[in-house]
Amino acid sequence: MTSEAPKQHLNPFSLFYYAYKGILNWGIFALIALPSQRTNFWVVIGTLLSLVIIIGLLKFFFFTFQIGGDMITINSGIFVKRHTHIPYGRIQTIQRSQWFFLKPLHLEQLKIETAGHESHRPEVTLPVVSESVREEIERKRLAVKGNSTMPGLTTDQSAKPAVDSSISITATHHYEINPHDLNVFALTSFGILPLMGVLAAVYGKIQEYIPKHFLNTVTKEIISQSILIISGIVLLIVIIAVVGSYFSLVQKYYKFTLTSESNQLKTYQGLFQRKSVTIPINRIQALRVKQNVLRQWAKISTVQALAASSAGDDDKGNDMMILPVIKTHDVFNQLKPFVSWAPDQFISLERLPKRHYFYFIRNAILWTLIPIAGCIYFFRLWGAFSLLLLIIAFFLGWYSSSNTGWQLHGDQLIMQSGWLFTRTEFIIPKKNVQSFSLNQSIWMSHKKLAHLRVNVRHGNHNEQVEIRYVPFKDAEKIFNWLRIRN
Amino acid sequence: MTEGTHLPEKIKNVWRISAFINFAILLIIAIGCYIAFIFLNWQWLFWPGIGFGAIAIIDLIFELILVSYRYAFWRYNLTADAVELQSGYIFKKLVSIPIARVQDVTLSAGPILQSQKLQTVQITTASTSHKIDGLEPQTAEQLRRQIMQLAVEVKENDV
Question: Where is the YdbS-like PH domain (chain A) (predicted)?
Answer without folding.
Answer: 61-139, 253-312, 403-482
